């Protein structure tokens, strides 16, 4: 599934450094990383916080609207075990996420 929040923005792609700057590897354009931490996958729910009340697209739209271009998404070892399934995801907000494994959910976010 393609994330709606990417609206016309090119993905950052590979990054590199040039002196003190972080730059796009392909163009050399300097960028500033502005990050936010989104907890939840490291807890017993194995799901990013808030997916029981808002859709993934809405939450990612909010991240972009606040000016962030980087998400720190901590997770625990249990999330990468075979068969691990996230909980605390509401079907009415996120019907496409129901039944996904933790790594499949992580793929959609990343």
From TrEMBL:
Q: Which InterPro entries match?
A: GH
Sorted alphabetically, the keyword list is: Carbohydrate metabolism, Cellulose degradation, Polysaccharide degradation
**GO biological process entries:** cellulose catabolic process
Question: Sorted alphabetically, which PANTHER family does this protein's record hold?
Answer: ENDOGLUCANASE, MAJOR EXTRACELLULAR ENDOGLUCANASE
Name of this chain's protein: Glycoside hydrolase family 5 domain-containing protein
Query: Origin organism of this chain?
Result: Alexandrium andersonii
Q: What is the lineage of its organism?
A: Eukaryota, Sar, Alveolata, Dinophyceae, Gonyaulacales
């Amino acid at each position: 599934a393609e994330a709606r929040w990417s609206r016309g923005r090119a993905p950052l792609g590979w990054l590199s450094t040039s002196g003190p700057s972080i730059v796009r590897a392909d163009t050399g354009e300097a960028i500033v990383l502005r990050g936010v931490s989104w907890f939840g996958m490291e807890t017993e729910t194995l799901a990013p916080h808030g997916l029981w009340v808002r859709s993934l697209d809405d939450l990612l739209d909010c991240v972009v609207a606040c000016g962030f271009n980087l998400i720190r998404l901590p997770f625990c070892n249990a999330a990468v075990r075979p068969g691990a399934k996230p909980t605390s995801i509401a079907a009415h907000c996120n019907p496409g996420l129901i039944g996904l494994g933790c790594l499949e959910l992580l793929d959609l976010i990343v």
